[in-house]
Structures are given as C-alpha cells and as structure tokens.
Write a structure and sequence with these properties.
- It comes from Lentzea cavernae.
- By secondary structure, this protein is an alpha/beta fold.
- It has three domains: about 160 residues, Rossmann fold, CATH 3.40.50; about 180 residues, Rossmann fold, CATH 3.40.50.12780; about 100 residues, ANL, C-terminal domain (GMP Synthetase, Chain A, domain 3, 2-Layer Sandwich).
- It contains 15 helices and 24 strands.
- A six-stranded mixed sheet has the order 5-3-4-6-7-16.
- It starts with 10 loop residues before the first helix and ends with a helix.
Length: about 450
C-alpha cells in the first residue's frame, strides 16, 4: 500500500474534503452536504466497489445524473484504481452500446448507488497505479463511435485542479471567484468536473442547477461554465430584460472560439467576469484569458504547458496518452509526446495566444466538435443524393451548425426533415443539417477539389 503522502489521484481531493469537515461543499436543492459527509459517501462507495471485485485496471462505466452521489462515485472509482468512464447524455443508443463495450467490468447507475452505500466505510486508500488509465473522456462521437481519450493516474495526479501550489496565474485569479459554482448537464464532462474540483479546493460550494438558464439569479451563483452561444443569449437577455446578476463573478467560456466582437460586447454588458479557456479533451486546459487580458486572445499558456505555434502542437501535465483501443487515430494525434490540436494559432508580441483557424474539417455545435466527413458519408447514402458537401455556418443558437449541399440523383430533392432523421439516427441530432441546399454541381477550386469556401460564401 502506498504511503498516504505519495498516493495518486484522488488523494489530493480527499484531503480537501477532509479539511473541509463541516463546511458545505455540495448543494442539491434543499440538501446541503459537508466535506465530511461527501468524504463518507466516497468511502462507502469505494468499499462497495471493492466488495464487487473492482480494483486497479478494471473498467467502470457510470451512467448517472448530477448529484452528490454521482460526484462521490467518480472519486470512489478512482480511489479503487479503476478505469472510470462517464457516459454523457445525448448519445445515441448505438453510441452508448459502443462505450459500454470498451472493456467495462461494471456499470453503475443512480439506482445502484443505495446498495453501494450500505457498505461500512473504511478510510479511503488510493490504489491507482501511475501507468494505468484512470479515466476515459469521450469525444463527441461524430465519426459514429466516440473516441475515448485515455488519461493515466500519473497525468491526473500531475494536473493542477486540486493542487493550489500548481495553479497558473489565471486559475489563481479564477479560484477567488468560485464561491458558488453551478454544475449541470453531466459530471462526466471534463470541464464540469475539473472546475468542481477547483471549487472545492478553493473553499467554495458546488451547486446543482437542473436548468442553468436562470440559476445565477435563483441560486445566487458566483460562477458557471457557458458556451459561446449561451453567452450570446445571456448578453442579449441582459440588454432586453436585465436579470439580477449581482452575485456573478466568473463566466467560464469554453467549447469554441470567442470572436473579439462578442468578447468585447460581453465585457461591456456583463462586466469583468469572462474567463475564456482554450483546451481540448485530449489536452485539458492549454491557456485561459482572464477579464483583464486582451480581447481576442485566449491568454498566456502556463509555464508547464508547451505550445508550438502555427498548427498548434502542445504538451500539458495532464494530457491524455492516446485513444483507448484506437492506435491508428492515436498515432495521428499523439506524436512524440506532443498532442496535435489541429487548430491554427500564433503568439503576439506580448506572448498572448490568438487562435486563427482550424487545420481540420469540423463543425462545433454547442461546444461539441463533430467531423464533417462522416456526415457527408451518411448524406451520400440517401437514395436520392448523388453527392453531398457539408460546411459549418454560424448559428446564434448553437454557435455553429451544419449546412448541407446535395447534388440530387434525379429531380427529387429529399426534404430537410428526411435528411435530418437519417443523420440523427446514425450520428446524433447535433450532426443533423439545419439547412439544405440543392446544387447541380459543386464549385471547383484551382486544385480540382470542391471549393467549400465558395459554398460558404
């Protein structure tokens, strides 16, 4: 058994909960859970998992909601050294079935937790082995089957969220604003979970918001994660019918780039509360702009993050080691210790990182990245479609949306609803085109390839 001070993740989080004692750390409706109570939940669930034979190297799949027990189950899975994979909502049945086939030893749902909690708690002993995979974080699944980014126990132990001595300057500033941090959607979200751990470490409370739309006012929140489309809606609502946002101190903007115009408008309307993070599932946080950083940048990367500009390659302390069970894709993205982001960017004279585009054909819908190639393939399988081309277009509701151009085989152009149902059934609703245009042939670039820039125009 490793000495306590050298135990891997989540030892640092458990120590935070132990130090919190009677301080409220989780709030779910009228229920308030203290640090000691949450630590007891972790201990009981960990004992129950061990009784079911779950230990280092075993696969643990979690299909749970957003509540204290779900958070405790994630930590308990790591306590016993398992490979934890959270299954987020919104996936198709086929995608969920695929995820549950990835060497899963045990699946836990909310209904299974009461049985685990009957266990007699023992002081948590963190059994994770440094080289073992600690968690699988799934990508959007736009290729049909979500890719699972594999993060080792060594990487999770080296990450910064539960270690104040390792906080970069931007995170240190953010930590002072996390008094009441909203969680919603799914705790299997990398961003949602990481900021929850940071909140607990900073002395704040994690607050469950079933519907985040009015939760800042209703729950007197100080911080929440928000997508770029969500930010645009919030800004528009504040301009037309202002709500009381006097408690708000941090909006954690993630998922897609924020244009300088929207960035500036949000600061004007909401005040100095924007923290614009840049990262990927494969890397974790790469950099973060604070409210005082130049508009149009994503801040300066921390000293322990290396970034090569142009087509951005990065190295971070908590990066994934590859895609679970997918050596081909791993070889393309994880190169000699670097992660190929397939984003384009450059540093300005002051060392701030500015994103300038993408080196890949993707659309980002509601902060989730989807590859365009698989969407085009599904569209081309329709009996009335001879060719299909997809581009990403701006969308006020989702940030970006899919616009499909099809060359019909005959005179019949398939209805948009028919196309949407086809794509949704195979790849999920986010990949379904929001608009459809029939063309006789695609425009051609000088290279002889279809000219998608002309289609976008």
């Amino acid at each position: 058994m490793p000495a306590r001070e050298t135990e891997p993740f989540p030892r640092a989080v458990l120590d935070v909960l132990g130090a919190a004692a009677d301080r409220p750390v989780f709030e779910h409706g009228t229920r308030v859970v203290t640090g000691a109570e949450l630590l007891d939940l972790v201990a009981r669930i960990a004992t129950g998992l061990r009784a079911k034979g779950i230990g280092p190297g075993d696969g643990l799949a979690l299909l749970q909601g957003v509540n204290p027990e779900a958070f405790a189950t994630i930590l308990a899975g790591h306590v016993v050294g398992a490979r934890v994979a959270g299954v987020r909502p919104g996936l198709t049945d086929a995608q969920v079935e695929h995820l549950l086939s990835l060497d899963v030893t045990l699946t836990i749902t909310d209904a299974d937790v009461p049985d685990l909690l009957r266990s007699t708690p023992e002081p948590p002993r963190c059994d994770g082995r440094p080289g073992d995979v600690a968690r699988l974080i799934h990508t959007s699944g736009s290729t049909g089957a979500p890719k699972a980014c594999a993060q080792t126990y060594a990487a999770m132990t080296g990450a910064w969220a539960a270690r104040p001595d390792a906080w970069p300057p931007a995170v240190r500033e953010l930590a002072t604003r996390l008094g009441r941090y909203l969680v919603f959607g799914s705790l299997s979200s990398q961003v949602m979970f990481e900021y929850a751990v940071l909140t607990l470490t900073a002395g704040g409370t994690v607050v469950v918001a079933g519907d985040p739309a009015d939760a800042i006012t209703r729950l007197e929140a100080t911080a929440r994660v928000i997508t770029v489309p969500g930010l645009a809606k919030l800004v528009a609502a504040q301009k037309s019918d202002p709500a009381d946002l006097s408690t708000l101190r941090a909006l954690l903007v993630s998922g897609s780039p924020l244009t300088p115009e929207r960035h500036r408008e949000a600061l004007d309307v909401l005040g100095p509360v924007l923290f614009h993070g840049y990262g990927q599932t494969e890397t974790g946080m790469i950099s973060m702009a604070t409210p005082g950083d130049p508009v149009g940048t994503v801040g300066r990367p921390p000293v322990d993050v290396e970034v090569r500009d142009g087509e951005l390659y990065v190295r971070t302390p908590g990066q994934a080691s590859g895609y679970w069970g997918n050596p081909g894709e791993s070889a393309e993205v994880f190169v000699d210790g670097w992660v190929r982001t397939r984003d384009l960017g450059r540093f300005d004279e002051a060392g701030y990182l500015r994103l300038t585009g993408r080196a890949r054909d993707v659309v980002i819908v509601n902060a989730n990245l989807h590859y365009i190639g698989p969407i085009e393939q599904v569209l081309a399988e329709h009996p009335d479609v001879a060719e299909a081309y997809v581009v990403a277009v701006p969308d006020d509701e989702t940030g970006e949306a899919v616009h499909a151009f099809v060359v019909p085989k005959a005179d019949r152009v398939p209805p948009l609803r028919e196309i949407q149902e086809l794509v949704s059934g195979r790849l999920g609703a986010a990949c379904a085109p929001s608009r459809l245009t029939a063309i006789s042939e695609p425009p051609v670039a000088p290279s002889g390839k279809p000219d998608k820039r002309h289609l976008i125009a």
